[in-house]
Amino acid sequence: MVTGASSGIGEAFARELVRRGFPVILVARRTDRLAAIQAELGPSVDVLTADLATEEGIAAVGRRLQMGGISIFVNNAGLGYRGRVADQPDANIARLVRVNLEAPMRLSRAALGPMTASGRGILINVVSMGAFQPVPYLNVYAATKAGLLSFTEALADEVEGSGVRIQALCPGNIPTGFQDVAGTRGSRFDRTPSMSASDVARSSIDSALGGGATLHLPARMDRVSLFAQRFLPRFVARRIAGSLLKSD
Hints:
The protein is an alpha/beta fold and about 250 residues long. The chain has one domain: 3-Layer(aba) Sandwich (Rossmann fold), CATH 3.40.50. Helix content is about 50%, strand content about 10%. The protein is built from 9 helices and 7 strands, in the order E-H-E-H-E-H-E-H-E-H-E-H-H-E-H-H. The longest helix is centred in the middle third of the chain and has 29 residues, at about 90-120.
């Protein structure tokens, strides 16, 4: 099962899993887009329309997970909004926290029951390189991803020895529809090094199936960047991040 599967990294996960012979359940709120992908990928694909910004959407996906039979669950749905927190309406902040943090926490819990009972399974939470430092002008997004990273790494210890593998996938700037929704298209952030969504999905699945580390950074440039941050004061890291997103 893959959430946020109608575009971007989620769609890339869906295509890669089908290519490897897995039957897949695609979750997203855009019914028309899900139907188009299903028609293209064939009979091994099922769809579940759900908006993870709503209680009803989270509950529907949670019920399906608790039925069992899901060997790989990819918590991918997420979004961001560029700008100062003071300029954001409460609804934007609430939506970000629910989709990026509350939903993956609750759906992780729903998936883990059947997985631990069967003694096997893979849970991939799609985090972000933004989880590793504060990001001015993408503030709430980065804060939710920092929370999801902490949650996922701790979860890996909680299920150790159960047969369930946990991965915190931390991609950098990947060209997807995220930039259009977040309003980062055309910013200096949009010109930072990136890799394709399909390469991210392939790297993540290879690592998870191969028993790789909980923390997975698919791009070499991002691994170098994270290593370099160890030697920078935090205020320098956040000012660099903010400079990529501040309006010209």
